Amino acid sequence: MTANSVNGSAKISYADVEVGTELPAQTFPVTRATLVQYAGASGDFNPIHWNEKFAVEVGLPDVIAHGMFTMAEAIRVVTDWVGDPGAVVEYGVRFTRPVVVPNDGQGATIEVSGKVGAKLDDNTVRVDLLAMCAGQKVLGMSRAVVRLG
Fold it and tell me: Where is each MaoC-like domain found (predicted)?
């Protein structure tokens, strides 16, 4: 149980949410060091995520972030809003563009916003997410179904 949840449930009430309710937007910095840490945690050591020479040789503009890393950062907007990661009952995305992470000390920034797209049955809502990097949409059809209190 987190400090923001009561008995493992969401801190947001279904009755208080309307279609169009906006979630607080967040930005997530991504550096090469972040990618190496994620590779260690996930076991995904594909060189496109850490070796610039290899990434370019296979046709990428530079090293790119792991798709699952990008997906995980995006859902944080929902879990932070709802206060309970266990409230997410479904989540899916389409990968539309890679998050390119240059080795310039600054890296990249993933900007994520979300809004309630629909109120569903059983105290659930569909949250539609928008994930952008360098002015381009990096996740398409990014949607989560969340059970609210």
Answer: 20-127
Contact yes or no for 26/80 (Cβ under 8 A):
yes
Total structural domains in the chain? 1
Residue 27 located in a structural domain: yes
9 pLDDT tier (thresholds 50, 70, 90)? low
- Reported pTM: 0.90
Per-residue tokens: 70? 């990008």
Residues 59-91: tens digit of each pLDDT:
999 999 999 999 999 999 999 999 999 999 999
Alpha helices, DSSP H, located in the chain: 32-42, 52-57, 67-82
Q: How many angstroms separate the CA atoms of 101 and 123, rounded?
A: 39
